[in-house]
Design a protein that fits this description.
heterodimer, A: 94 residues, Ubiquitin-like (UB roll), 3-stranded antiparallel sheet, B: 254 residues, mainly alpha, Ferritin
């Protein structure tokens, strides 16, 4: 018999205009309780304006073993960074 | 017409003692809950209740006019001075009973705070407005848990029904009006609690039905807490623990 509640990944938006950020995970019997638990565990010091929860088993992830083929080829492609343009001073911060 | 200050004080003590005693009871779970998430949630609830206590008893101390503070009222009164309903001082029992007691209390508070927000007394209205957001969350959470456990496994259902049979006779005291309530109602400070029963029964009835729990048929209601006439034997034990530090080290601060 399975007694453990499913694991949920918690994403919190700290303020309007920012994106949701992964803050951690917790256990809950369903999505509604996961939101309530997230509210109690992760926003008790006024950290958030919005909460997303997703059951951990629904997240597809890259395997650490595939790191080489997936990420190493981009290490040597500096030309992909748009750092070769001169930005006029008047543009200010981009 | 100025309201009788002694009666206003009694009304405020009833509010503050309810949240103080239940807040302390709930805090007893800290570090003992079945899972980390519930442990934090219960600690949050306890802190909310104690925060509301500071407002109610702070105002009570002002009305009393003897230069005392909310802390004095919380830690230096004896059992017979407390005006909380008996439900709040009952032992926690298992997790299910604690959450059912919480729901029965939260449901009453959610009905009451809605009315107190329109109180003719500005301070009462302001306290109720602040508390109402916490209460709205508490009742949602405790109701969900009551449904989850009541309509859960065979064992959780049986435990919740047993808890309801034990707690239900303590619900009636919420609505036992007396001359203090009559004076508050006349001054527009607070509703007559008896007038809240229908709304309470509708809310509680729906949640308990969803939880597949049966409300006991008996109308018998324990009383004596909100009048201070006679508390249960459990209150003295609770105070012994809660007030120990101020009793052993009078005036101690940190």
């Amino acid at each position: 018999m399975k007694n453990e509640w499913p694991l949920w990944e918690i994403f919190i938006r700290g303020q309007h205009g920012m994106s949701h950020r992964h803050v951690g995970s917790l256990h809950a019997p369903d999505a509604e309780m996961a939101i309530k638990n997230a509210r109690d565990v992760y926003t008790r010091r006024n950290e958030g304006v919005s909460i997303w929860v997703v059951e951990a088993r629904h997240i597809a992830a890259t395997a650490p073993g595939e790191k080489g083929p997936l990420f190493e080829p981009s290490e040597s492609k500096v030309y992909r960074h748009p750092t070769f343009f001169d930005i006029p001073d008047e543009v200010g911060h981009m | 017409m100025a309201v009788d200050q002694e009666k206003l004080l009694q009304f405020l003590l009833r509010q503050g003692d309810n949240t103080l005693i239940l807040g302390h009871r709930v805090s007893e779970w800290c570090g003992h809950s079945p899972i980390l998430e519930e442990d934090i949630a219960l600690a949050n609830t306890a802190l909310d209740l104690i925060g509301q206590t500071q407002m109610w008893l702070g105002y009570a101390a002002d009305v009393q006019g003897e230069g005392k503070s909310a802390d004095d009222l919380a830690f230096l009164r004896d059992a017979w001075d407390f005006r909380n309903v008996l439900l709040t001082e009952l032992p926690n029992g298992d997790f299910g009973r604690t959450l059912l007691r919480q729901f029965l209390f939260d449901a009453f508070q959610s009905v009451l705070m809605g009315r107190l927000m329109k109180s003719s007394d500005e301070t009462v209205a302001a306290i109720a407005a602040k508390a109402s957001k916490e209460v709205a969350y508490h009742v949602e959470r405790s109701a969900d848990t009551v449904v989850g456990l009541g309509d859960g496994t065979e064992e959780s259902h049986a435990r919740m029904q047993e808890a309801l049979n034990y707690l239900w006779p303590y619900v009636g005291e919420f609505f036992a009006s007396d001359d203090v309530d009559a004076a508050m109602a006349e001054a527009g400070i607070a509703p007559d609690p008896a007038s809240l029963r229908e709304e309470y029964d509708a809310l509680v009835g729906k949640v308990l039905a969803d939880a597949t729990l049966t409300i006991p048929a008996s109308k018998y209601a324990h009383k004596g807490g909100r009048t201070g006439y006679m508390h249960t034997e459990h209150l003295g034990h609770l105070l012994t623990s809660m007030q120990w530090l101020q009793r052993a080290y009078p005036g101690c601060e940190w």
